[in-house]
Amino acid sequence: MSNHDLHRRLHIAGLAALTAAGGLAAAPVAAQESADPEVEVVTVTGQRLAQKRALERKRLSDAILDAVSSDEIGRLPNRNSAEAIESLPGVSLSYDQGEGRFVSIRGASPNLNNVTINGITAGTPEGDGRTVPLDVIGGELLSSIEVIKAVTPDMDAQSIGGTVNVIPPSPFDYDGAFAAGSARVGYEEKGGNTPYAANVTAGNRFGANDEWGYLIGGSYSLRDFESNGIFPDDWIINDAGGAQPESFKHNLYEIERTRIGFTGALEYQPDVDQHYFLRALYSDFQEDEYRQRIEYGNLAEGAVFDAPQRGSTSSAEGESELRYEEKDKRFLNVSAGGENRIDRWTIAHSLTYINTETEEPNENWEFRGDGLDIAFDTEPFLLDVAPGDNAADPDSYAFARYREQLDLIEEDSWVAALDFRRDDLFGALPGFLKFGAKFRTTDKKQDIETPRWEGNEDSPFTLASADVTGTTIRNNVDGKTYPLGPIMDMGRIREFTAANIDDPAFFVFDEGATLEDAVLADYDLTEEVLAGYVMASIDIDRFTVLGGVRVERTETDADGFELTNGTEVSSVSNSGSYTNVLPGLHLHYRASDDVLLRAAWTNTIGRPSYGQISPTREFEIDEPSPGVFEGGLSEGNPDLDPFESMNLDLSAEYYFSDVGIVSAAVFYKDIENPIFGDSVTLENVTFEGQDFRELEISRPANADSGEILGVEFAYQQQFTFLPGPFDGLGFSGSLTLVDSELTVPGREDEDLPFLGQSDTLYSIALSYQKGRFDAVLAYDFASSYLDGLEGEPSRDIFYNDFGRLDARVSYQLNDNLGLFAEFENLNDEPGHEYQGGNTDWVTGYELYDYTAYIGITGRW
After folding, report:
1. Taking the model in full, what pTM does it have?
2. DSSP per position, 452-508
């Protein structure tokens, strides 16, 4: 898409949004509340109460945002806080084993968004990137979640797509003593396992004037499930003119996921002008994953075809692999602070400590064979693969490699914030002045250890000779059956390894590969961000104008290792810094009591990932002839600039009731300094005192620019005007259309989108609430997106359309107790990856199936 086309579409989209805004006030939407004084007033509860609270937060915000409240988080079967916001306009998720994990906002990848806890950056237990896995944080213990799409100057600038702000509850959200909780037990269609979960939150106000408050909550869930799938790789056009993968693998996973959550607060509010707090949020995500894999490679070598897409080979390579992995991701946020009002001034202050940790030990065994007989047919959507007798024989697979891996990742941050606000600044005109500063210091450490052992070529042993073969499994994938075997028995292979690991006749320690893994991923990095801002807001008649500027100074210092020629290790360090000046302007126009128009011009950034600025270096130096040197260097780049985005937003919102809205929005992002891997070959150059005839340097670098354009539409209504029993019906839906253009080095002539950007997102929810009965059926959809650039279009990887159908039904037994049933992924939606833009070139097809729960809720 050319710049001319993009700007033309921006113009058209802007006109469409304005036209929609102009027609909102006259839209023939039926009133939901009668003006007749004889009509009985109905208390808003359940789904309607949740929607009312979310709309109030959206309507009153200075920023452009959408939100879900605690009631709405619980109205659908959301496994975590990522899934709780999936239905909001412009939000899409990256899934792992059928569960939402990372959040993309308005076409921007998770690495370019921000996740905060009460406005303070959350930190991440992930390794190199800045993505925050929201599956770590359960939604049961939260008060609300905001998705902020156009920030104000008092918010962190790390927000290319937006910011997910997680808000835990406060004891002052309640009038006095309270307790609430739920418990559920379920059924997993795949595997027949029984997941279960429970949570409870309680608190009270105390003191002579109820000036003290405390809250404590806890949650626990366990999900034991299976998933399986096929993973063809590297599709090509074969000698017969048909399409086929060069390798094929299929997996079976057995997974146990445990989530433990805790929230707590102690708060003191002696009067309306003073409020002090001590709050904590803790989450622990544990996963044990057992994976059996069979892979057949080299399928095109020596293949004989009886049709363009049907053939066989006797030169295939085979691999039987077993991996057992344990993950433990922990997240802790502790914050102390307060707010004081002195005359017209309000002073807010806080100090926050954030700690995230990941421990990920795993074991991996590989047995390999060659000269195997494999027949294949790629004509069906899910290809047929038929292993011959020798491919199914355990004696064909000799021991190749054993790895023990321990990943240790830790991030510690301290954040201090101080904000001043002066109200009634402009006399009779409502308004305020606000300014403040924030300082964050983060220490990120990554330590990866992977000892490796190879097989002894002089005395190889096989699956059969070691007597470690397990029972072949029939791997059923959408009606196709693939024999998963020969595989390993985990108990026997562990016993054999423990008994023989020190015997070089069986296991030969690989010093080179072990050293490489031990140093090339390790770093210790400190990042400091000092931010200051000033902003002011004034109301003039129906207009509100809010403007200001934010300045952020970022400095990094990092230590790591350099590995030269695979054997020489030395310490290396680097440092970098940059300053961003980020002005912003928000305009609100209240066309009527129910119609609100917004416009915003903001500037935001997306910092490089930690791995991209790590000092780690791998240097290979060859001397092909005396005195002539050639080399290759791979390293991080501390001089990277952050992504910088200029954002324009225009929206119109019509609130036709306290639970009803029609809205339209258009957004545009002009993004500079996108980061890509870069490789350059230098000739006849002197580098670090050494002359090279040829030197190839690979490091991340800033590229040119990119643009994102999109429109959002949302509609929500409760049809209380209908005759009974249809007056309990409700509907909510959203639609987001996104287009983008990204300039990629080496592929400048191609029309490429941003990675992870779906062109179409929509969410539909049908609800019914009548008396004590409540039900909702929801479908969330994200269209296909580019998932990975692989050098040329025919090798790029895409993730296909993904839509999930969920449902929940509940009945309130009395004022305190309720029953519910909920169903996840009723449509058994698979995960589907493909290559080269061709959905038939499947590179991944995983099945998850549905999960059902029944449970009980309580509130006192």
Report:
1. 0.90
2. EEEE-TTS--BTTTTT-B---EEEEETTEEEEE-S-B-HHHHHHHHHHHTT-TTTEE
